[in-house]
Amino acid sequence: MRSVSKTYTTSKKGVVRAIDSVSFDVKAGEFVSIVGHSGCGKTTLLRIITGLTEPTTGSVTISGKAVALPMRGVGHVYQKPALMPWRSAIENVLLPIELLHGDKESARKKASALLASVGLKGFESLYPRELSVGMQHRVSLARALIHDPQILVMDEPFGSLDELTREEMATELLKITESLNKTVFFVTHSVSEAVMLGDRVLVLSPRPSKLVSDVAINVPRPRTEKVRTQSSFIAYCEEIRSRLGSNLEGQRPVQ
Ligand SMILES: Nc1ncnc2c1ncn2[C@@H]1O[C@H](COP(=O)(O)OP(=O)(O)OP(=O)(O)O)[C@@H](O)[C@H]1O
Ligand SMILES: [Mg+2]
Predict the structure, then answer these.
(1) Which pLDDT value is given to residue 68?
(2) Is the CB of 208 under 6 A from ligand 1?
(3) Is 40 in the pocket of ligand 1 (CB under 6 A)?
(4) Would you give the distance in Å from CA 106 to the centre of its chain?
(5) Among the four 101, 189, 203, 236, which has the fewest Cβ within 10 Å?
């Protein structure tokens, strides 16, 4: 990403400067956590990376090519699982295959294996209403992985979960991403989640977002839940919180 800026113009709010000259490089297979105050431009940044929003100035390239739609090698996970209520868990995972007219029957085995890898073996034929919210999130992660994307973009995927489920999901995600070796962009409001999962944490300033810090997390992998108690982990969290600043009034809490 090179000198990317984004300005929105709306009739009601006029000009809103969301992103201000952000540049960074990401290696294939890196897990990049992104933290910043609410409304600073994190979702905008993810949309620019995946070609859904055009930057006002600056450029984004992936493997030397300018980002352009449609981008097939990207899996998306959002804050809400957004499952189709009338489709079973496995049918939801298979939806992207169906939409792109792929061979659904041959993908069924893979969908089953993905559901098993997110801890949902035996739940394939249940409908979303029969699953807990945490389970629905797991289905949404499996759905994002069905195309075996090179890049996984996650926008506050666990934001609506209670703390315990959230920690469980973070541990699951750690296992999955460490085994899959994908490039991941992971937006979160939780500093500890960002550090636990990330090879790096990009810290954005309040709007217009500048990249205020790019912290390499030198905690060896594979990581486990125990990482949270290590002194280096706590020091990283403190460093990132101080970079974020304490001006949190009116914002969602940064944990
Ligand atoms: N399509 C749009 N049109 C106009 N303004 C927009 C649009 N999308 C985002 N914005 C504005 O850009 C700014 C950044 O929004 P964005 O959704 O990227 O923030 P965010 O960091 O993801 O926030 P949150 O943490 O609350 O999800 C906000 O002021 C928002 O109002
Ligand atoms: Mg957002």
Answers:
(1) 83
(2) no
(3) yes
(4) 28
(5) 101
Give the pLDDT means over successive 10-residue stretches in the chain (255 positions).
96 92 97 96 95 95 88 88 97 93 91 94 97 94 94 93 90 89 94 96 95 96 92 96 68 48
**Residue whose CA is closest, atom 31 of ligand 1?**
39
Q: Which H helix or E strand runs over 196?
A: helix 191-197
CATH H-level, domain 1-73+150-166+175-248: superfamily:
P-loop containing nucleotide triphosphate hydrolases (3.40.50.300)
Q: What is the pLDDT of residue 205?
A: 95
| Rounded distance from Cα 215 to ligand 1 centre (Å) | 24
CA of 112 to the centre of ligand 2 (A): 31
Helix (H) or strand (E) holding 205: none
Domain residue limits, the chain: 1-73+150-166+175-248, 82-148
Question: In this structure, which ligand is nearest to the CA of 35?
Answer: 1
Neighbours of 24 (CB within 10 A): 12
What are 66-75's contacts with CB under 8 Å, separation 24+? 72/100, 72/147, 72/149, 73/147, 73/149, 73/150, 73/151, 74/50, 74/149, 74/150, 74/151, 74/152, 74/153, 75/144, 75/145, 75/146, 75/147, 75/149, 75/151, 75/152, 75/153
- Residue carrying the six token digits 């990207």: 74
CA 99 – ligand 1 centroid, Å? 28
Helical segments of 59-117, H only:
89-93, 95-99, 104-117
Task: Tell whether ligand 1 has an atom less than 6 A from the beta carbon of residue 18.
Answer: yes
CA distance 227 to 112: 30
